[in-house]
Design goal:
The chain is of the alpha/beta class and 428 residues long. The protein has 13 helices and 15 strands. A seven-stranded mixed β-sheet has the order 4-10-9-8-7-5-6, sandwiched between helices. A four-stranded mixed β-sheet has the order 1-2-3-13. Helix 8 links the parallel strand 7 and strand 8. Helix 3 runs antiparallel to helix 10, helix 4 crosses helix 10 and helix 7 runs parallel beside helix 8. The radius of gyration is 21 Å and the shape is globular.
């Protein structure tokens, strides 16, 4: 059955639509932190559909909310008043930390970042964007144009002029040998020098922790230091929270809060976890920025009733069950367990991350040279052991990505860590 589906997939879908594993699997259903494939195999899910199943699979509270809404109306567009959309926007605006916040819903993180770029360039009347090296912001034309990761950037054509800034990767690049304070100072000096050689940019867009880039991040406070430089020049700060938002990092509800000294971002983009699998993305911005467009606009599917019902139920569950706190506690145990294993595996260069957003970078032993074959080997071995994980990385790295649902239990964390230990030790 699976081989037949794979043949059909290859005959009708694009060649560049990537599939994991030598023998791709079809996931048919899930419950809690586990999923099952078409052949009946059970897996502990440590990737959550690319950090999207944030609370749990088949969570009854969300299933009921979606079912109840489906029995009333699925969709009407933004041309009509929409109670679930208003209610979720109110909650998101309140949680954002942005004063006088407005919220616009989209269907994905890519679309959210597109919208943020539209708002920033219109507000500032500039098409120049600052982005981070090793970044990823989506697959649309404009999002690809600001993505600083060659593996996910299929064209150099872009509607934007993009300038790339140092700082998103702490342990590589020209400043890697510096301590944290000197690292931040060097990145700020580089930013100031860059701004002296270009027309005024519209905005800096940055992931607090780079997702596709392999869960890399700068020292705390880098973006606060950047913001001081940007604010002096009227340049906006867009925090791409598509992967870091909603408490995944454990220590903070938003990733930008690790860089909060200079205040909140001007715009925040979000998606993935808020829908727990439903197609929800969005932008939060100060009213003067959100309202700067001088023509009409609507969204056919952004904010549709069925996804808003899912988002409301999901957010309520997350807050009432303190899943941020659980991510901090269980994630802390998991990362220490993985670091203990990594110390005995020469192929592991670094275990990094926060909360339930953990990266394991693999290189050829004794070097800083990427080893994508090793990453694929561990991915396959983990699957054979009943564990699903992700992979990514840029800037000449190969990284495993560990991002379970935030309701992960201590027992499940131990189970997954044991499988990962065996998979990493298989590298020899």
């Amino acid at each position: 059955m699976t081989k037949d589906l794979l043949a059909r997939h290859r005959s009708v879908l694009p060649d560049w639509l990537a599939l994991y594993y030598e023998d791709p699997l079809e996931i048919t259903h899930g419950e809690g932190r586990h999923v099952w494939d078409a052949e009946g195999n059970r897996y502990l899910d440590f990737f959550g559909g690319i950090l999207t199943t944030m609370t749990a699979h088949a969570l009854p509270e969300i299933t009921k909310a979606v079912s109840d809404q489906a029995g009333r109306i699925l969709h009407s567009s933004t041309l009509y008043l929409n109670r679930p959309m208003v209610e979720l926007a109110e909650r998101v605006a309140h949680l954002s930390g942005i004063p006088d916040a407005r919220v616009f819903f989209t269907t994905s993180g890519t679309e959210a970042n597109d919208t943020a770029l539209l708002l920033a360039t219109a507000y500032r009347r500039s098409n120049t964007i600052l982005a981070m090296r090793n970044s990823y912001h989506g697959r649309s034309f404009s999002a690809v144009g600001i993505t600083g990761n060659r593996g996910w950037s299929p064209t150099s054509l872009s509607p934007l002029q993009t300038l790339y800034v140092h700082g998103g990767v702490r342990t590589r690049g020209p400043y890697a040998a510096l301590d944290d304070d000197a690292f931040i100072a060097a990145c700020v000096a580089d930013l100031k020098d860059l701004l002296g050689h270009t027309r005024p940019p519209a905005a800096l867009i940055a992931e607090p922790i780079q997702g596709v880039g392999g869960f890399t991040s700068p020292p705390d406070g880098l973006y606060a230091a950047f913001r001081e430089v940007l604010a002096e020049r009227g340049i906006l700060w867009i925090a791409d929270e598509v992967q870091t938002g909603w408490g995944r990092t454990g220590e903070h509800f938003w990733g930008w809060q690790a860089h909060a000294r200079s205040g909140p971002p001007d715009l925040v983009t979000f998606a993935k976890g808020i829908g727990n699998g439903s197609s929800i993305g969005g932008v939060i911005a100060r009213a003067e920025i959100m309202n700067c467009l001088d023509s009409n606009s609507i969204s056919t599917f952004g904010g549709t009733q069925i996804t808003m019902a899912a988002g409301l139920a999901n957010l309520t569950y997350l807050l009432e069950h303190d899943l941020q706190g659980n991510a901090r506690r269980v994630g802390g145990l998991l990362i220490e367990r993985l670091r203990a294993v990594a110390a005995q595996v020469p192929a592991v260069r670094e275990v990094r991350g926060r909360g339930l957003m953990i990266g394991i970078e693999l290189t050829r032993p004794g070097t800083d040279q990427a080893d994508p074959e090793a990453a694929s080997t561990v991915l396959e071995a983990a699957r054979a052991g009943g564990l699903l994980i992700g992979k990514g990385g840029g800037h000449d790295t190969s990284a495993l990505r560990i991002a379970p649902p935030l309701s992960l239990t201590v027992a499940e964390a131990e189970e997954g860590a044991a499988v990962l230990e065996d998979a990493l030790r298989s590298l020899g």
